[in-house]
Amino acid sequence: MKTKFLIVFAAFLVSVSSIANNEDVWGPTGHRATGKIAEKYLTKRAKKKIDKLLQGESLAFVSTYADEIKSDRKKFGKFYTWHYVNMPLDARYEDEEKNPKGDLITGLGECVKVLKDKNSTVEDKRFYLKMLVHLIGDLHQPMHIGQKEDKGGNTIQVQWHGKGSNLHRVWDENLINKWDMSYIELADNTKDLSKEQIKVIQKGDVLDWMYDTHKITKRVYKSAEVGENLRYRYSYIYFPVVREQLQKGGLRLAKLLNEIFC
Q1: 229 DSSP β-pair partners
Q2: What are phi and psi of 229, to 5 degrees?
Q3: How far apart are CA 139 and CA 98, in angstroms?
Q4: Beta carbons within 10 angstroms of residue 227's beta carbon
Q5: 186: which residues sit within 8 A by CB, 6+ positions away?
Q6: Could you tell me the pLDDT band of residue 188, with boundaries at 50, 70 and 90?
Q7: Quick one: DSSP state of residue 97?
Q8: What is the pLDDT of residues 151-172, one digit of tens each?
Q9: CA-CA distances (angstroms) from residue 110 to 107, 123, 127, 199, 245?
């Protein structure tokens, strides 16, 4: 009993540390893979405009920018809530009370608005493009569409191969990092899809894509018990889901960018 308590308490400390350090997003590898995948599906016109706007930096390179600016809460604090949507598992986003500070859906809407506005400055367009690339990645991380009471799984303590973690962090980084693949390797090893399959994935809008991710969110909440030691079997079941989400994120990001920079 004492040993079990110590294990769960250790996992709790890791979880608290993770929350304190804002480690609540796809890890850098996941975001970069999404950006890299998107680059494959950009139209020539969109790619040319994006290259000019980003001054040669790739989508993969700028994909972590929205996390990097979190350290400056004074200047960029208003964007913090843009990384997630909190709502009950059986809820509809349209029916729920919205976060007055904004959320992932409203944040993406603002990014698109600025990028489409001919009166936006180059600096603003560059900033909001970087934000959009990152937020589309977040939209496909299931625990970013999580419950408010557990901070999207951040307070659900588990073990990852015997070490303290939480359910959110497992999906942010643990599953990806365990495979020890670079973002380029992840992007280069996506499933071969037909044009029709790609059209199906890209169909709809940001809200449709959120609901698609939310289906997985419901599975993730049922996937582990508090204090459970998640190991190879968990990776075997869920790493393919992570890979699929990264690919969907890349394809949908490309669609959105092609529409904006048509």
Answers
A1: 159
A2: -90, 105
A3: 17
A4: 17
A5: 29, 30, 33, 36, 176, 243, 246
A6: very high
A7: P
A8: 999 999 999 999 999 999 999 9
A9: 5, 15, 12, 25, 23
Q: Are 152 and 167 in contact (CB under 8 A)?
A: no
- Order across the sheet with 229-230: list the strands: 163-166, 157-160, 229-230
C-alpha neighbours within 13 Å on the C-beta side of residue 22: 14
* Alpha-helical segments (H) within the chain: 2-20, 28-39, 44-53, 59-62, 65-68, 73-76, 104-116, 122-139, 167-169, 175-178, 183-188, 195-202, 206-221, 232-260
Token duo for residue 153: 């799984």
Fill in the DSSP letter of residue 171.
I
pLDDT digits (tens, 9 = 90+) for 95-144: 999 999 999 999 999 999 999 999 999 999 999 999 999 999 999 999 99
C-alpha 241/C-alpha 97 separation (Å) is: 30
- CA 21 to chain CA centroid, nearest Å: 17
β-strand 229-230 against 157-160: which pairing, if any?
A: parallel
Question: To 5 degrees, how large is the angle CA 151–CA 154–CA 155?
Answer: 90
Say how many Å lie between the first and final Cα of the chain, rounded: 62
Q: Are 181 and 238 in contact (CB under 8 A)?
A: no
- Domain annotation for the chain: domains and CATH numbers: 2-260 (1.10.575.10)
Q: Which secondary-structure segment (H or E) carries 166?
A: strand 163-166
